[in-house]
Write a structure and sequence with these properties.
Layout: H1 2-11, H2 21-37, H3 46-63, H4 80-106, H5 115-126, H6 138-169, H7 171-184, H8 200-213, E1 222-223, E2 228-230, E3 233-235, E4 240-241, H9 245-249, H10 276-279, H11 295-312, E5 313-317, E6 341-345
Antiparallel strand pairs: 1-4, 2-3, 5-6
Helix pairs in contact: 2-3, 2-6, 3-4, 4-6, 6-7, 6-8, 6-11
C-alpha cells in the first residue's frame, strides 16, 4: 500500500488523469506472492508480470462461461475457449509446481517462511502415524496454493478498484471515512489490522461496496454430493449448482432501496457499531463449508490497502467527465475502463487554536 501511495503521488499531476487499476493489480499480486511463496518481487519483475498475465487470462476465459459446466461430456468436444482455459491452468500449475518443488528442496521445519512451507510441514506431520486420509499430497498442496492465489488476487484487486471508484464517486462518503481514520488513527502511523474493529464506518463502506457492486455475481461452480431438497426444490446428486449472489444482494425483500449506495445501512442507530444481522446478509464469498478459502486473507488485505490509501490520499473524478459505473459482466464484474481518476495528497490536519 505504501508503494501505491508513492506511485499515485508521482502520477497525480497528470493532466488527463489515469487508470489506477494497472497499479493496483501488480501490488495485490505481490502481496499474495509474499503470503504463498515468501517472495516479494520488484514491480517490473517479469515473473510477477507473468503472474498478473495468468490472472487476467484466466478471468477473461472463465468469464465467458462454458456449457461443459452443465453438460460435462461437452468438455471432450473441440472448443477454443475450453482449450485456452486448460492452457492457462496448465501454465499456472507449472509455475506453482516449480515454486513448491523449490520449497521442498530448501524446507526447514524450524523456519517456516510462508503458506507453502506450512502446508509441507502439515503434510510431513500427518504422514507419521496418523490417519492417511488427512494427508496432503504434493499435488493437493499445489491445488491449495492455486486456490489461495486465485481467491486473493483478482478478488482483492477488483474490490479495491470498486472501493476507490465509490470513494471518488461519492466524495461526502469518502470524507466521512477519512474523518473516522483521522479521529481513530491519525496520520502519524499506518493503519493496522487491530484497528479494524474501531473503524465501523470504514467496515460499513466495504460491506456496501461488496453488496452494491456484487462484483462476484455467482459463486464458482459447485456440485451436489447427494440428492437434496432446498425450499421445496429437488436437486439430484452430481448437479452443478451456483449461488446467485447478485440477486441476494439486491433482493428488495432483504434490503431497503437496494439500488442506493448507502454504507449507513450496516450501522446501528448510533453509528458506532456494525449491525451483524445486516452484515451477515451480504453474499460475496459463498456459503457453508465450501465457501471461498481465501475469504479472511481477502477481507484483511482489502481493509489494510483501503485504509492506508484513504488515510494519505484523496480520490476524485475529473470534473465534467461522464463516468459509467455499471458493472460489466465477467467472472468478476468490473466497471468500464476509467482514466478520469485524479489524486491529491491530503492536506495536513490542523490543530484547534
Amino acid at each position: 500500500a505504501d508503494y501505491l501511495v508513492t506511485k499515485f503521488l508521482q502520477l497525480k499531476d497528470e493532466e488527463k488523469g489515469f487508470n489506477l487499476n494497472q497499479y493496483l493489480v501488480v501490488s495485490v499480486a505481490n502481496v499474495i506472492c509474499a503470503i504463498c511463496f515468501g517472495k516479494r518481487y520488484d514491480h517490473n519483475d517479469q515473473e510477477l508480470i507473468n503472474v498478473v498475465y495468468f490472472g487476467n487470462e484466466f478471468g477473461e476465459v472463465a468469464a465467458s462461461g462454458n456449457p461443459a459446466d452443465f453438460i460435462p461430456v461437452l468438455q471432450y468436444l473441440p472448443s477454443r475457449t475450453m482449450q485456452v482455459f486448460k492452457d492457462v491452468n496448465r501454465r499456472f500449475t507449472l509455475f506453482v509446481q516449480k515454486i513448491v518443488q523449490e520449497h521442498y528442496t530448501s524446507f526447514d521445519k524450524e523456519h517456516i517462511r510462508d503458506i507453502t512451507d506450512s502446508l509441507i510441514e502439515h503434510c510431513q506431520e500427518k504422514s507419521v502415524g496418523e490417519d492417511a486420509r488427512t494427508q496432503l499430497s504434493n499435488e493437493k498442496i499445489i491445488h491449495i496454493v492455486n486456490d489461495l492465489f486465485g481467491a486473493g488476487f483478482d478478488t482483492v484487486t477488483t474490490a479495491l478498484s470498486w472501493s476507490l471508484m465509490y470513494a471518488a464517486f461519492y466524495p461526502d462518503i469518502q470524507k466521512k471515512i477519512q474523518e473516522e481514520l483521522d479521529q481513530t488513527i491519525g496520520r502519524e502511523r499506518r493503519p493496522r489490522l487491530s484497528d479494524r474493529g474501531m473503524l465501523p464506518y470504514m467496515e460499513a463502506f466495504i460491506l456496501e461496496m461488496f453488496r452494491h457492486s456484487s462484483f462476484l455475481p455467482f459463486t464458482i461452480p459447485h456440485c451436489t454430493t447427494k440428492a437434496t431438497v432446498l425450499n421445496g426444490y429437488y436437486i439430484p446428486k452430481d448437479t452443478c449448482v451456483f449461488i446467485n449472489q447478485w440477486q441476494m444482494n439486491h433482493d428488495e425483500k432483504l434490503w431497503k432501496d437496494p439500488s442506493t449506495f448507502n454504507p449507513q445501512r450496516f450501522l446501528n442507530a448510533a453509528g458506532t457499531e456494525i449491525n451483524r444481522t445486516e452484515s451477515d446478509k451480504v453474499l460475496v464469498f459463498g456459503l457453508g463449508k465450501r465457501r471461498c478459502i481465501g475469504e479472511s486473507i481477502s477481507r484483511w488485505e482489502i481493509f489494510l490497502f483501503l485504509a492506508t490509501l484513504l488515510q494519505q490520499l484523496e480520490f476524485s473524478l475529473r470534473p465534467g467527465e461522464e463516468v459509467d459505473i455499471t458493472p460489466q459482466y465477467g467472472l468478476t464484474m468490473k466497471y468500464k475502463k476509467c482514466e478520469c481518476f485524479q489524486i491529491r495528497q491530503r492536506s495536513p490536519v490542523t490543530s484547534s487554536p
